[in-house]
């Protein structure tokens, strides 16, 4: 169980549903603070600046990284950069509130270096075949991008042993409630709204 004021880091392979689990937590668990990542990619349909991401250009991202304002950052799938604003995380932890980062494997490894006391959760698919089905089914990438993401996912799957616990995302509500339970909170009921993952 996660103590108050301890950071929980949720990571896992691309298309595993990290964003959907995070959105379900945002909808059903208002007491959990969710970090909003900074990214250099363009908004996808339905995404709002400051809600789903902070959308910035390359120069702005360079400044944030160079000035130490990011807790972690990474180039994802060889294209866009994503990062976690440091000040917001530190403020919430100082207040003793439950905080969750939904990030990629590169980011999780950086956070382990800077905040070794964090609790690391690996979200995994029921199988690699199911991961491929989800990746192809969401239709947001072309064939080249899907192939790139699948190669990345296979590498990410091999990192499961680096995490404190693993949760299988075979059902969003169940996976969300298991994560919330690990954070020391009582699971609630409801139905999820599917959304795109951070990466």
Automatic annotation (TrEMBL):
<keyword id="KW-0067">ATP-binding</keyword>
<dbReference type="Pfam" id="PF00625">
    <property type="entry name" value="Guanylate_kin"/>
</dbReference>
<keyword id="KW-0808">Transferase</keyword>
<keyword id="KW-0963">Cytoplasm</keyword>
<feature type="domain" description="Guanylate kinase-like">
    <location>
        <begin position="5"/>
        <end position="184"/>
    </location>
</feature>
<dbReference type="InterPro" id="IPR017665">
    <property type="entry name" value="Guanylate_kinase"/>
</dbReference>
<dbReference type="InterPro" id="IPR020590">
    <property type="entry name" value="Guanylate_kinase_CS"/>
</dbReference>
<keyword id="KW-0547">Nucleotide-binding</keyword>
<dbReference type="InterPro" id="IPR008144">
    <property type="entry name" value="Guanylate_kin-like_dom"/>
</dbReference>
<dbReference type="GO" id="GO:0004385">
    <property type="term" value="F:GMP kinase activity"/>
</dbReference>
<dbReference type="InterPro" id="IPR027417">
    <property type="entry name" value="P-loop_NTPase"/>
</dbReference>
<dbReference type="GO" id="GO:0005829">
    <property type="term" value="C:cytosol"/>
</dbReference>
<dbReference type="GO" id="GO:0005524">
    <property type="term" value="F:ATP binding"/>
</dbReference>
<dbReference type="InterPro" id="IPR008145">
    <property type="entry name" value="GK/Ca_channel_bsu"/>
</dbReference>
<keyword id="KW-0418">Kinase</keyword>
<comment type="function">
    <text>Essential for recycling GMP and indirectly, cGMP.</text>
</comment>
<feature type="binding site">
    <location>
        <begin position="12"/>
        <end position="19"/>
    </location>
    <ligand>
        <name>ATP</name>
    </ligand>
</feature>
<protein>
    <recommendedName>
        <fullName>Guanylate kinase</fullName>
        <ecNumber>2.7.4.8</ecNumber>
    </recommendedName>
</protein>
<comment type="similarity">
    <text>Belongs to the guanylate kinase family.</text>
</comment>
């Amino acid at each position: 169980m996660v103590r108050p004021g301890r950071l929980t880091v949720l990571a896992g392979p691309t298309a595993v549903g990290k964003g959907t689990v995070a959105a379900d937590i945002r909808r059903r668990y208002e007491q959990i603070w969710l970090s909003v990542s900074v990214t250099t990619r363009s908004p996808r349909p339905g995404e709002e600046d400051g809600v789903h991401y902070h959308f910035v250009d390359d120069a702005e991202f360079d400044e944030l990284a160079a000035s130490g304002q990011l807790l972690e950052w990474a180039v994802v799938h060889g294209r866009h950069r994503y990062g976690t604003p440091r000040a917001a995380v530190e403020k919430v932890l100082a207040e003793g509130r439950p905080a969750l980062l939904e990030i990629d494997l590169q980011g999780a490894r950086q956070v382990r270096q800077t905040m070794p006391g964090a609790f690391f959760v690996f979200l995994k698919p029921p199988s690699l075949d199911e991961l491929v089905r989800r990746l192809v089914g969401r239709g947001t990438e072309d064939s080249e991008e899907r192939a790139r993401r699948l190669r990345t996912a296979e590498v990410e799957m091999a990192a499961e042993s680096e995490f404190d616990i693993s949760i299988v995302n075979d059902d969003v509500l169940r996976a969300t409630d298991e994560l919330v339970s690990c954070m020391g909170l009582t699971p609630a009921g409801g139905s999820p709204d599917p959304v795109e993952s951070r990466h």
